[in-house]
Amino acid sequence: MNSSKSFSLKNQILFLIALLIVWILIYGRLKSFAESITFKIFGLVPSSHLGEAVSFFLYDTPKVIMLLTLIVFAIGIVRSFFTPERTRKILAGKKSIIGNILAALLGVVTPFCSCSAVPLFIGFVQAGVPLGVTFSFLISAPMVNEIALVLLFGLFGWKIALIYLFTGLSIALLSGIIIGKLNLEKHVEDWVYNIRMNSTSLPEVTLSWIDRIDYGRQAVKDIVLKVWPYIIAGILVGAAIHGFVPEGLMAKIMGAHAWWSVPLAVLIGIPMYSNAAGIIPVVEALLAKGAALGTVLAFMMAVIGLSLPELVILRKVLKPRLIATFVGILGIGIMLVGFLFNALL
What we know:
The chain is mostly helical.
């Protein structure tokens, strides 16, 4: 039985290596493929607005989807070590800055979506996780997720990815500490504290490497199939910006010299709903057209970390004053990041 399992694992690893080689070969030829279709098959003029937009769309669509598939599979395997239940156990009883640091870091690798905000919040409260520590996790998990980081690395390089990681974690950490110091527990809905915590703890399930590979495959099915419409929509917007928006216009509206560009970017980002995979093509096009890095980072963080749908969901467990405090602190933190990088870069 063990030799059969081992053989099966070897076969899967060899198959994955073969797929990775094919992935690398295809990925390296995407740009020439997109240009051939746009300018040779479609006959569009390279310097024309439509030609630039179509080329951007045909290049970015397979590029982002291929990057996302590879990332989600790899991180799916990593995430098999960090279930929400295990995260809750790690954070239970942790206080002060150590708890906030752990929560912010665990938010990067723990599976999270807006729909899971309420059950995760209730589980954390029941486990005795302090409110400030809980918010460090709730801020970090959607905003500094691994998909955003690796896509930023793949599209813009390690410097921008590290900037986003550092600033996102700093916002999550400091926001959680401030909320914890304000003693706002009374502004959590009463019914959350009245839920009796189940004393029966589920046994830890030990996964084999075959199970973890299957976990990665399932993550690809669950995430990529769910987010591809957002990716297409984001790339369409990015293609329109890339092909039809004059460079000078973006520099005027979202340039570093326009002090009002950062708060405006945050206000525009809050009502929008997208995930990292959907918003990054828009970010790519904005930066290419002359928008300032700080303004674009503030816009991206607002879309991902302060989305209106997540606030509506959190209203089920938080009273209005706590939601307003959360939005205010996080919004100010995001704007400070925008102003800082616009001043430095």
